[in-house]
Amino acid sequence: MHLLRLSPLPAGPRGSLGRFGLLNSHPMSASDPNTVITRFAPSPTGHLHIGGARTALLCWAYAQRAQKEGRNGRFLLRIEDTDQTRSSESSTQGILKDLAWLGIDWADGPTVEHNNKTIGGDERGVGPYYQSQRLDLYNEHINKLIESDHAYPAFETPEELEAKRKVAIEAKTGYKYDRSALDIPREERMQRMAAGEPHVVRLKMPDSPITVHDQILGDVTVGPDEFDDFIIRKRDGFPTYHLAVVVDDALMGVTHVLRGQEHLINTPRHIAIQQSLGFDSPTYAHMPLIFNPDGSKMSKRDKDKTAKRAVKEAKLESSPIEGLSDADFAKWLKDKTRQLPSDQLIALAGMLGVHLPEIDVEDFRRAGYLPEALNNYLALLGWNPKSKNDDGTDVERFDMDYLASHYGFEGMGKGQAKFDRVKLLSFNADAIAQLSDEDFASRWRDWASSYDPALCERFNANDMLMLAPAVKTRCKTLADGRDVIGFAFVQDDAIEFDGKALHKALLKGEAKGLEMLKRFKDELATIDPFTPENIEQAVKDFCEKHEVGMGKVAQPIRVAVTGGPVSPPLGQTLAIIGKHAVIARIARCIEVADAGGAAKE
RNA sequence: GGCCCCAUCGUCUAGUCUGGUCCAGGACACCAGGUUUUCAUCCUGGUAACGCGGGUUCGAAUCCCGCUGGGGUCACCA
Would the CA dihedral through A450, A451, A456, A461 be positive or negative? Predict the structure, then answer.
């Protein structure tokens, strides 16, 4: 065996390894209790997943809290694009946009314009924030590791390793890299590497257990048998995630690493690199993962899965989507792992009338969720403020400011959580209902301008403001606000009257609703201007004059105008479609009722 | 399969560290009633959980062990 006792490099404090003099002048050591620097480091291989959003939110909140307490708190964003084949700039832009929309802003990182403000920047001079632009830094550290014998080049091809792995698995002995590269004399290894022979670089793992002091889970110790000498630089010259993350966190001064529990097993590897390089380890906190209510993983493929099921139920055999060939459609349908581009998937779902599960932040935005509700729910999934309201109930509804001043690891749960859309929906409905009419109208309009242009065409900003009080307590998302006023989208002469409702409201009982409707129709002309308040007043006056209850008058009108027994308060319902349409609809309803009534008798 | 993490109402959770005040509290959902011109909002009340088995103890949701169950991870992905 070629095991080496690990000892830190004589390089000194982490700051001195940076190429920026600034590093030394900042209090960014992990041991400085007055500094909290957290980071979110997504790999730009797709949209921002809701689980990623939660990680980002909590990292942000933790740094914010330090800042609010007068300490040095910063949240930074770094793009982990060391996988050249899967990363894309458009994904990066989407992620930045989604974070900004959620209200999660970063002090250091790529810049983006949002609401006339610039988010991000490089105030501390520790960028760039794209790992693909930091290769020289990684190589510098990898070279140090090789020189100090903490790492070594290895020349096996992926195929050779795959073969060995296969043998090991068949023999049911766990696979570990066998360190055969170390059988090559050191001199020769170095020469072959210098000569440009294709190789990877592996880290020599220590032969003693490594303990992670996790802030959520406590101490987690993993023995040396569980690790092999993993790769820190790939054949293509790019560092692997493990090396890059450690070097960047150190050079960027990250003090607290908050991430999903899937990284727990990686952490000992990171600690080993830190020790080999002489870096302090940041404080770690691994949070539980989020799952679907059925216990499955919340995956981007869930959307395709739902669509595929709907396609099969509808027995669709050819592609109904423009730009998607029948052949590709068939391939997609057959292959469980195949995904359709977002726009095609949405179009398909629209045609089939199915609701795709929201998985990415963008999905929730499209579905009409408010960022404040999403953030509130997300924060609560795994974190509990452990604080009571005045009425004795637990604090559950809070805003970003509350989160930013109260969030800490003490309140984190350890168990995996299921994502309950119904509860989220309730949070969203509450958040919507709490908006002022003005705020609701403007946010509804903003949403519709992107996702429901027809709504903006049918109603101008003033209309939407008038609609606000009626709609905001009747919708759970901005998207289903439209359903509340669906009757306004139907042509006056195309209303389909609900037979049961029509009979009950107009034809049944002593005081005939139909009679009331006929009389009320004649009074409509006098209501001016045709506002919700004036209409309500007119109906009240009418009821008093005829000495009947409101229900006797309101329901017939409601049915006449909307076709059914359910709608917002009458004043708003009538004002929405306007006097002319109301008269037309009532007239038509009277005709229908007269005919139906005659037929019945 | 090896290793690691986890385990309270259907779901998210409080309570567990510092055993008794917990025949287990809150929220969402659900059910019943009330307010209301319909619906929604709102208000009141209700159903509902300590995974199982052993210990320790006067006493265990709380401490220990085992089991079961869920999850993560075993890449030249991150």
Answer: negative
* pLDDT on residue A457: 93
Domain assignment present for residue A55? The answer is: no
One domain, residues A443 and A498: no
Q: Which long-range contacts (CB under 8 A, 24 or more apart) does A194-197 make?
A: A197/A155
Indicate whether A523 and A469 sit together in one domain.
Answer: no
CA angle, corner A432, sides to A426 and A436, nearest 5?
150
What is the C-alpha to C-alpha distance for residues A50 and A55, in angstroms, rounded to an integer? 9
The reply to whether A461 and A573 lie within a common domain is: no
In the predicted model, what is the mean pLDDT of residues A278-282? 96
**Cβ–Cβ < 8 Å for A214, A14:** no
Residue A322's domain comprises 301-358
Residue A600, pLDDT > 60, answer: no
Confidence of residue A597 (pLDDT cuts 50, 70, 90): low
Is the pLDDT confidence value at A194 over 60? yes
Looking at the domain assignment, is residue A129 inside a domain? no
Please give the model's pTM, rounded to 2 decimal places.
Answer: 0.91
pLDDT at A399 over 70: yes
Nearest nucleotide (C1') to the CA of residue A242?
B78
The reply to whether A581 falls in a domain is yes
DSSP state of A27: -
- A473 with A496, same domain: the answer is no
Distance A411 CA to B66 C1' (A): 30
Same domain, A460 and A508: no
The amino acid that residue A575 corresponds to is A
Name which of A19, A278, A244 is nearest A132 in CA terms.
Answer: A244
Question: HSE-up of A47 (CA within 13 Å, CB side)?
Answer: 16
Between the CA of A300 and the C1' of B50, what is the distance in angstroms? Answer: 35
Query: Separation of CA A413 and C1' B70 in angstroms?
Result: 15
ipTM of the complex as predicted: 0.95
Residues A518 and A458 reside in one and the same domain? no
Q: Which two three-digit tokens encode residue A501?
A: 């409702």
| Domains of chain A: total | 4
Question: Would residue A21 count as lying in a domain?
Answer: no
Flag whether pLDDT at A199 surpasses 50: yes
DSSP A327-380: HHHHHHHH-TT----HHHHHHHHHHHT-PPPP-BHHHHHHTT--HHHHHHHHHH
The residue from A236, A260, A287 where one domain ends is: A287
* Per-residue pLDDT at A598: 45
Please, what is the angle between helix A241-251 and helix A135-147, to 10°?
A: 100
Q: Which nucleotides of B are covered by protein (CB under 7 A)?
A: 1-8, 10-15, 25-29, 36-42, 70-78
Domain identity same for A146 and A194: yes
Q: What span, in angstroms and rounded, lies between the C-alpha atoms of A443 and A433?
A: 12
**Mean pLDDT, all residues of chain A:** 90
- Nearest to residue A542, comparing CAs of A528, A508, A534, A593? A534
Confidence band for A27, pLDDT divided at 50, 70 and 90: very low
